[in-house]
Inverse folding.
């Protein structure tokens, strides 16, 4: 939690920038105003949070013109800032160690059509400022700290968790962090709040009061919700402050245990794209590699992705390194006319080994399997597996590594071994 | 097909025995008569068939008395014969190379309650003698030869195929062997003949005209029916005399092909019981071993039983010899209250390795797997796998062999590699 000093400093930074922006706006005769948004404005910020200032333009401005004017205003305050590109371009800078974003948007009213999703942000701030009291602000912060510890705080596609705004909506709905815990510990199935029209089907549905057509909880994955359900049970049974202290580098040594498995690593260059574009592709790659393994009936035990500064790795762990040199081909039921062509085809093939015979009412023939090593199966099929737009382009440089010793020394493998949800923060008597 | 000479000799043997039996019956003042039954009586016998003579007793005799008198009469003809035990005891002997059975039964009428199933046999003979003409007798013999070639002739529990009587019923129903082939080549699903009450659910239902409450086709397994469906298609597409010539020792060398698999062999002493009691237990043992492998998630490719003079072997072929040293334990969904005890139990276990984490909404924890070799998994669990009454008793002497070279030299393995349904008898242009 930020101390009073940190808060005061950040507000001073924000006030100064907004004052300078307002004077530039007036000087240029632009129909716009500035507004402090985000958790700092609502008092729900965690330590080291950003300062987010929005410039709200009249809807009379055309989009291109508004975006141009927004960037110009930003540069008038931070001439050396680099522009960034989200839905609108914006500028980002650092003041005394604090990240400051200056973002242009349109001024809209509650429940009116937005032009871009950032247009809603000032409304979120306004809505929360009117409703969050001193007590509930503390409950929001507890909620955020708890979720952060569990690795499910943040709506980025990397985390697939609960955004700060969702934490605030949860406290408005449940009243206190403790009640939120109680409800979550008993929740079975989806978490749905105020979805009267039952329009949404994602694991978490929390209707955005600022735009009733929007699900503010859309980013939360089922696994993130599952972590919440589990962690809340442990918290209530063994309550502890430890649930709110977060160590970014816990430095725990992964357990070394002879696993008796076979590892393959797909390693691909990390493309220069933002996380929200990269991570869905990394997850897609992992999913598609897993599906491929399943279709080929490979004994896949674990599949794990790991993104480093320059590389994306997908680790696959198997029960064995290869398939047998024979393969059973199961034909149609014996009553089907195609059994004749099935038998003729396979018995005339140079790969025929044994059969035909009948198993469970179907014709079975054994044929030779030409490619048996999982390594080779993946290498031969990489081009048919979809990695997503940007990763697909880098596929020609991808490699399938199978040097077991090298993989076991890699950071990806170390991260894989360390995977653990900190459900049990307070249970120091547990072995781990 | 037997030649005229063989038939004439067999009838002479039968006539002589029946004459001697009748005179003994008269001498002893017993209310009974003798009757030649089976395929010899109906003219539908294949080469080297048996002579079956039944002694039909009045139902006034008590069972024990009838059985005693039946054995006595048999011994009066063949003093050195050994008694055999089926539903009633009977005697079996060999005359000039032909096996002769003398079987006591009760005299019953069509569709009256039987006392034992052998009581029906004389009625089967009577029914068929009245209906099978010269032409249809030939069609029956073709049917038997065809089914024998495919390994599905005989209703013993070893074969699970079509009995001679069923072959006769099939020809009475379909008229000719060719029409039978045509119908079978188009059959999808079960083969049902005259089951107006739809009482039976087995793959083949052929109501016995002599006892309408009986399914004469009950012994036929789904796989035997599947072989028939497939073979009939090939016969019609590529008709050939080869479908009727049967070589008991085809002597084909099995294909030697590096299979890249791991073999286990369960070897158990063959108990001194008749085939109809032994084979269901062998099949049960194979089935239960297969189910056990499936429950343990072992990568079983093939499972095959082989009965020799002194041993019963079940061969199991796997994709690999062992499981990894880690095992993923999947707990309840995160919304379930038992997740807490699941996590506590596994994390406090000395076998804990990694986790907990969430996968597809469920808690997963990795634990150490203590026994990883399939060989040891089977050895440790043999006592929990049901082999059937007689084989269970011999389980203490059973062994699980895993010397790959020795298994590959065994007769069981050789038989396994030779497995092949002779659907394609005429297709000499096929590789096999």
């Amino acid at each position: 939690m930020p101390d009073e000093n940190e808060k005061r400093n950040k507000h001073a930074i924000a006030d100064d920038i907004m004052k300078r922006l307002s004077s530039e706006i007036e000087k240029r005769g632009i129909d716009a105003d500035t507004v402090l948004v985000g958790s700092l404005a609502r008092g729900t910020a965690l330590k080291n949070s950003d300062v987010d200032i929005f410039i709200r333009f009249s809807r009379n401005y055309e989009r291109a013109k508004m975006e141009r004017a927004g960037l110009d205003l930003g540069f008038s305050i931070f001439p050396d800032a680099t522009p960034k590109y989200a839905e609108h371009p914006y500028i980002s800078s650092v003041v005394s160690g604090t990240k400051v974003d200056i973002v242009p948007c349109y001024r809209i009213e509650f429940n009116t059509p937005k032009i871009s999703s950032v247009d809603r942000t000032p409304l979120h701030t306004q809505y929360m400022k009117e409703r969050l009291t001193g007590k509930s602000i503390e409950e929001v912060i507890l909620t955020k700290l708890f979720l952060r510890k569990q690795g499910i705080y943040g709506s980025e596609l990397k985390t697939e968790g609960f955004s700060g705004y969702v934490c605030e909506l949860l406290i408005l709905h449940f009243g206190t962090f403790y009640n939120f815990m109680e409800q979550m510990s008993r929740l079975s199935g989806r978490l749905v709040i105020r979805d009267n029209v039952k329009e949404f089907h994602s694991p978490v549905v929390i209707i955005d009061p600022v735009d009733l057509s929007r699900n503010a909880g859309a980013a939360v994955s089922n696994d993130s919700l599952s972590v919440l359900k589990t962690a809340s049970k442990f918290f209530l049974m063994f309550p502890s402050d430890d649930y709110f202290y977060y160590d970014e580098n816990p430095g725990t040594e992964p357990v070394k245990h002879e696993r008796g498995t076979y590892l393959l690593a797909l390693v691909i260059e990390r493309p220069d794209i933002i996380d929200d574009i990269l991570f869905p592709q990394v997850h897609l790659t992992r999913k598609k590699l897993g599906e491929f393994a399943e279709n080929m009936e490979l004994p896949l035990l674990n599949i794990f992705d790991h993104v480093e500064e320059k590389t994306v790795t997908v680790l696959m762990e198997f029960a064995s390194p290869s398939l047998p040199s024979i393969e059973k081909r199961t034909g149609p039921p014996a009553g089907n006319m195609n059994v004749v062509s099935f038998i003729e085809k396979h018995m005339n093939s140079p790969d025929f080994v044994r059969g035909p015979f009948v198993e469970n009412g179907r014709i079975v023939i054994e044929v030779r399997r030409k490619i048996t090593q999982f390594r080779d199966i993946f290498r031969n099929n990489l081009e048919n597996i979809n990695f997503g737009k940007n990763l697909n382009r880098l596929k020609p440089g991808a490699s399938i590594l199978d040097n077991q010793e090298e993989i076991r020394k890699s950071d990806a493998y170390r991260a894989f071994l360390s995977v653990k949800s900190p459900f049990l923060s307070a249970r120091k008597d547990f072995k781990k």
User: Anything to note?
Assistant: The CA atoms of residues 139 and 177 of chain A lie 5 Å apart. The longest strand of chain A covers residues 98-106. Chain A touches chain B through 66 residues (CB under 8 Å).
